[in-house]
Sequence to fold (589 residues):
Amino acid sequence: MIMDTFRIVVVCTILMPGCILTCQVRENEELTKDWWQTAQFYQIYPRSFMDSNGDGIGDLNGITSKLEYLNEIGVTAAWLSPIFKSPMFDFGYDISSFYDIQDEYGTIDDFKKLIAKANRLGLKIILDFVPNHASTESKWFKKSVKREKNYEDFFVWHDGYENPNGGNRLPPSNWLQAFRGSAWEWNAERKQFYLHQYTVQQADLNYRNPLVVEEMKRVLRFWLEIGVAGFRIDAVPMLFEALPDINGRYLDEPPSGITNDPENSDYLKHLYTQDQPETLDMVYQWRTVMDDFQRIHGGDTRVLLIETYSPASFTMKIYGNRTTKGAHLPFNFNLITMLNKGFSATDLSRSISSWWDNMPPGQTANWVIGNHDKRRASSRYGEDLIDTMNMLVMMLPGASITYQGEELGMPDGIISWEDSVDPAACNSNKEIFEEFTRDPARTPFQWSDAQNAGFSTAAKTWLPIAAGYETINVEAEKNTPTSHLNIYKALVRERKNRKLLQFGDLKFKAINEKVFLLERSFTTGEKLILIANVGNQPSIINVDEFDSTFRGNVKTLILNLKSTKTEGTVLPARNLQLSAYEALVIERA
Ligand code: GLC
Fold:
């Protein structure tokens, strides 16, 4: 196995008024990294990628038919949101059989064909592993309800408390589920409450039961044997809950002060239901499953990508510690969570350093701007900034992650209350659902200007197609030299061709409230600078004040759609004029 052997010698952060300058100096650079360390990951939401059988729902054969497209845009590995058997209360995140494929997505043979074709094309496939919960329609839950041998404690059960006022028993604690309301549900047959940190149909597995731990490792090995290159692991911070006290009582969580809405999960500070220390050990055990599998079966490293929105103090431990390896990449969501519409260059700089400066030595960074749970990047930051964000993701060191459609600048779909299907929306009401809904980011992928954007031949698709698909689609953007897609492809080309972007050092700075500069430099003296005006006003900058070796002239390499310059133009490094939202990748002339 090839490992990153960079040794970090100095990490410094210099705070100056209105800007942050961060640099890392490294020695002993060895020009070898394992595949995932410079990989371009691409998230596919199978339900919305490509429908091969005209039922309005994306499927595996649809994905297989489009793998060439992934090759074309340089993807190394695609991770697929869940494709397993599910009653679809949470669109596949409520799994009723972890070993079977959902009928509407295809069969296990379809999946094997997908893997075989991906392998022929040099693409890796990663599956979504959902360890925290299983569907209440799963065999496991049904057996647990009946207290069948080996399944009695498969889930988190509790008697709750007698109601002093009479009537229904009271839940064991005040814990809230992610999609509004109590995290406890009474089961009339077993006469106990079960825990569900997500919908009522997603019962939390009990990780304090070794049988659960073993079964879930079996799930991992089952899919590894079919040929997957690793897993994205869902909702990891929720795996364990704090143990009850000596009286068998789960402790109530205190109010967070964030919201006054007592049904909203943010109402509580999740002291006992998230980020428990046992969770880290579980991730480390899964890493061992990956490494053991590789040692026994050979082949490339099988990777773990971890979903967590936890604070850095917890997230960075997911990478592992001095003695134990953890996940390859805990997702870095800071570009999502720390940037609101209208963000400043300083905000951007802070968001980048919040990962880069906290990352333990020797680990690999990664950069994410969207996923199926958040509003689409193009709508969240504004379409004017989508190329800039793609430039950042592709130019920052480490792994890049793209959610399907970001390369096209696909916007959110507008989904009415009547058309809403996401439980996060449907569990709320007509007045507030837009605050919670995830449907807008899940509308079908836009392939062309044909019926249903070329996604499906059905009369109706499971979610409506987003407005503007006639021009925002793969076919149209391929044929327009200056398009989000072609800018994305140009970035990928540079990333693949230049050792600088794979191994080079990083320096970045907000030179004022609106202009952000990022430089990659290499021992050969090669350098690239990204200049991003994130503001809606023109600006004039001196590039040589950021890097004195950029004296004289600079040459433009890649431009965003807001730029009025042309590619390959030579410009002065001093008094360089930028238009509103302009972003340029430049080199020395
Ligand atoms: C993760 C998924 C989300 C799902 C939840 C429960 O956050 O990304 O879509 O609803 O876990 O599985």
Q: What stands out?
A: The chain has three domains: 1-35, 36-132+213-242+273-488, 133-204+243-272. The longest helix spans residues 277-297. Confidence is low (pLDDT under 50) at residues 1-29. The two ends are 39 Å apart (CA to CA).
